[in-house]
C-alpha cells in the first residue's frame, strides 16, 4: 500500500534570475500574477488554486513539484518518512501546511494540505464564441497545472518512489520494441471511480536528471491555437514542439521554453481515466510513430532543466 494517495499536482517550483522577465513570459503563456515579492513570483490559472507556479529568484533551474494530500492525516503520514521535514506552515497565497520530501533524483517534493481556495477567474465568453476574429487574440487561458515530467537515468527507482509514496498508478509504459527495455512510464492519480488525467507524472529515461517539462491545461482546444499565435507574435520566445496531438492521453499540445530554457506545455484533452482503467505497454522504436505530426526533435527529447 502506498503511504498516501495524493489528490493532485499543486505547482511547479523553478528558479530564475529575473522575476520581471519570468512574469512577462508567464503572462504571455497565459498565467496570472498572484503575488510578486523581491524573492519569489507566484502565478495562478483561472481555476481555484491560489497559485500553480512559483519562481524563486536565483540561478536558473528546477527545484521540484508539489502535490496535494487528501487529508491532514496524510500530511502526518508523509512527515514520518525517512528524510521528511516536519509539518510546516506555508507563508504563501492560500496558506496551508506542507511536508518537504526528496525524490530519488534529489529534487524537492512538497506535499501540501489545507490551502484556501481562490475565486475562479471567469473567462470572457467572447474569447471563444464571438465571430469577431480579433476577439480570439491574446494569451491562452490556462485553467490549472496538470502534470510534471522527470528526465532521469533511474526510471524504475523514480517510478517506484512516486507509486509507493504518493500512490500514483501506471497508465502507459513505453518499452523498446526489440529489447523490451523500459524507456518511461505515465502514472496517474488514483482517485478511485473519479475520472483523472492520463498522467500526473511522466518519467522518461535520460542521461541527466531534471525536469523535462511542466504542463498546463487550457480552457479548451481553441486556447492552444490562439495561445500559440500570441507567444509567436509578442515576444522572442523559443517554440519547441507542436501544435500536434499525443496518441497517449489524446492531448492537443504545444511546447515553449521560458527565457531560461524551462519547458512549459499547453494542452487540451477530453480523455479521462479512473482507477480501474487498463494499463498498456506501448512498443517504441524506429518506424513506430504514435503521436500526430512531425517526430519529436532532439531538442525536445534531450531537454532537461536541472
Ligand atoms: Fe506533457
TrEMBL record:
Domain VOC per the UniProt entry, residue ranges: 8-114, 144-269
Pfam families, alphabetized: Glyoxalase
One MF annotation (Gene Ontology) recorded for this entry: lyase activity
Keywords: Dioxygenase, Lyase, Oxidoreductase
Keyword Metal-binding found: no
Name of this protein: Catechol 2,3-dioxygenase-like lactoylglutathione lyase family enzyme
Lyase recorded as keyword: yes
Compositional bias of kind Basic and acidic residues: 291-306
Location of the region described as Disordered in the Swiss-Prot/TrEMBL record: 284-306
InterPro entries (UniProt xref): Glyas_Bleomycin-R_OHBP_Dase, Glyas_Fos-R_dOase_dom, VOC_core
